[in-house]
Amino acid sequence: MRGMRMRTKAIMKTNRELLKEGIAALEAAGVTEARADAERLFMDLLGESRAFLFLHGNDPAAPEEETRYREWIRRRAQGEPVQYITGLQEFMGLPFHVKPAVLIPRPETEQLVEYALELAASLPAHPAILDMCCGSGAIAVATAAALPDAALTACDFSGEALQTAQENAVLNHVEDRIVFMRTDMFGSAGPGTEGLSGRRFDMILCNPPYIPTAVIETLDIPVRDHEPRSALDGGADGLHFYRILAEQAWQYLRPGGILLMEIGYDQAEEVAGLLSAAGRYDHISCRQDLAGRDRMIACRRTD
Questions:
Q1: CATH number of domain containing 49
Q2: Which domain holds residue 61?
Q3: What does the alpha-carbon distance between residue 52 and residue 46 come to, in Å, rounded to a whole number?
Q4: pTM of the model
């Protein structure tokens, strides 16, 4: 019996060996950020920081952790995003639950929130802010956390997305300042609901689906095969939802209210043209992201 225990102990992998195995498996699968992904999966599995490995790299990995880690590595090797595997993503320094029903929040959208906070300085006290196409709730929750005097409304057509957004509001302790509504853009999402009829906002934020339908098939596997297509597909030219915003958003803005949207890097001229043609907006401007690409369009409803 003693000999059996010694043999079992001898084949137990250390944390460092298990991580090395994960990195090798992801490299063999052609994962671009193999080391970073393997490390993140390992750290999220243990609930520890990266520095943990330097202190405990030679500790034996627990059998249940070894089994789970190998399963996570298998899923990542098949293209599933790390965030869906762990169920977590940080956004604006806040934790968010993410599921296949919602897009994974991205750094470019953090810049949208940062821009919104700049623009919010010109709004009245206790501003009413709408997050349209809220998905995981990243924009609404981060904005509510940064503007404690603001009242947020978050809308999405997907019931699963709204449920995830509500969970994230609770997770970040802002659930008492966000109203969640299921809408089809500004209209009713079904019988017995009124949508946003009669409501007015000081600011409308939106990161809509904006990828042209035909382009989706060319995207990387983690996006194409795992993120919700309904949150990616912006119609034949990618502008379907911007047309709705240009034609209707002004009706839900108070005079002088701000409309701020995330856009595809090559859509600035077309989206600005839609807003100009609507005749309801002025101060139309584009801001670039940190990579120098057109990323955000802002405008104000005319008085």
A1: 1.10.8.10
A2: 2-78
A3: 9
A4: 0.91
